[in-house]
Amino acid sequence: MLRIASLRYTVTSTASASRWTRVRVFSSTALNNTPDRDPGLALTSVLSNPKEVNGPTSKIPSRAEQIRRLQQHSADINNKQEYDIVVVGGGATGAGIALDAAMRGLQVACIERGDFASETSSRSTKLIWAGIKYMATASAALLSKRLFTNPVATIQDFYGEMAMVLECHQERKFMTAKQPHLCSWIPIAVPFTKWHVSPPPFGHWLFGFFPILSPMVMKFYDALSLFQCPPSYIMLPKKAKEVFPQMAHEDILYASVFFEAIHNDARTNLAIALSAAEHGASIVNYVEMESVIQDGTKKVVGVNAVDRMTGQQLALKAKRVVFAGGPFTDDLRRMETGEATKPAVQGGAGTHVVLPSYYCSSQMGLLDYNTSDGRFLFILPWENHTLIGTTDGKSSAHTLPGPPEDEVDWILNECKTYLSNDLEVRRSDVNCAWQGWRPLAVDPHAPPGAPVSRDHVISENEETGIIFIAGGKWTTWRVMAQQIVDRVVGKSGPKCSTLDAKLFGHDGYEDNLKIKLIQKHGMPEHVAEHLARTYGGQAWDLCGISKPTPIVAGYPYIEAEVIYACREYACTVEDILSRRTRLAFLNKEAALQAIPKVAELMANELGWTKEVTAQQIEAATKYAESYAGPDRAER
């Protein structure tokens, strides 16, 4: 049985003063064992009491040191020490808030109930994209009949949508220019087989002529970034066959090629979190909020939390509390008030399928802009595999990544549209499939008649003082964090400086890093390429740990990464499989095969007992089995 901590706090208040009572309760069931608790969390909360290992650099404290700082802060709950901000949620946005606040000199704590990026932020389509779809929907709305029936609202909506697209272009530039160790350009082809499309995309007649208008549209898209991206271009059938031999070429008139940026989302999230730690933030994974701390009124002045790896309970006082829980934000808000609340977030579920690399060009991706139900579908080369996604359906978010089988089938059927007829897309070729949730947000505290956000929502409960943020895209993580901290500090507070930030791993990174790693350590090229692209300049420290011994055959992941990941706050075998490497996302069977070796390496590094090691293996196996693999899932 998995040994899991359960702790609970009680809060008592009087009119003149407040006092907080901490009650420590251990059980062999899940933390906060309630009927509606996500069962997947039980697989990520094995009590392991890990021994302390150093942080990845001298400037970044160890995870154990981060916990000690939180403990010292909560040792005397009535002291005058308090954080300026406590952030609940360590995805891209929450970690970004911690980084922004720390760079402004604020005292900030950020807690994440799982691993960094363990939910939405690791399950994206891997693009830092500037919103070409939003540009299209904005144009379709502007050119609709509504322009004549309600011109003011239509123009306002168009302006708002295009402002969001411009913001995405600016943030994409920040990522590609300042974070080359994490983010790179990728060309994406849009093939055309006819000059007119019917029924037209986005339900507007003008888009029926997109095959004719596409080159001009793509140049306009380039212009929105002030032509600071690689230029779009036309690819004729002969060149298309050379670059993308998997494509069906018989009927192709031409392909329009534009550029977006691609990244390893989980690694980018971790780099943001470690950068925040480097700037002084108390940021730590596997610390879960259990309740809020209130003063004599309804104002929230902190949170009660628990370290899920040790069972240590924490009480963190703060001037402001920010919820950045993504699609799980409403769960946090229910703890804020202790009762049912008006929903603010609706989960938008998206399934992705991973196929072998031979289904896609290694040089460029492909976009189907007009699928059978009108959604965009990307076919991308990612981590030497083919990534296809995404679907978009409404459902409640949960931790386990298993996707609906009908969505896997839909993706496989749709991707046949542009692939050669003699290239059979088989269900047995699916290495892995997984599902994530995008938080689609509305402001529950907005006055009646207020416009619905098309992007992200920042809202404050005037009674409790808690601010939450939900919605948005990977591309805009930095600006969303800036807006939250701007709101906390006010106009007279310290200004944002994250536009100058170079995220963890930037130092020591260079274009020829891969070659230098090969020359010094004698490793295979695919291993050196992976290490340089994933860790940037930190690859040197990692390679100094041990010889480049593979974790599992056929993949570039090496044993030294497991040991190094423990220094970067990895706590469980599943952390290694899903996010510190991306093995579980790429190949379910390979991930299952790697579990014993990963567990052995982590046990040696973190001092696990045999019992804990066995529990970690059990939990990681159950979690990995929840991904879809080559066999048709029975769901």
Automatic annotation (TrEMBL):
Annotated catalysed reactions: a quinone + sn-glycerol 3-phosphate = dihydroxyacetone phosphate + a quinol
UniProt protein name: Glycerol-3-phosphate dehydrogenase
Gene3D superfamilies: Alpha-glycerophosphate oxidase, cap domain (1.10.8.870), D-Amino Acid Oxidase, subunit A, domain 2 (3.30.9.10), FAD/NAD(P)-binding domain (3.50.50.60)
Organism: Seminavis robusta
Keyword Nucleotidyltransferase: no
UniProt GO cellular component terms: mitochondrion
PROSITE patterns: FAD_G3PDH_1
Domain (Alpha-glycerophosphate oxidase C-terminal): residue spans on this chain: 496-611
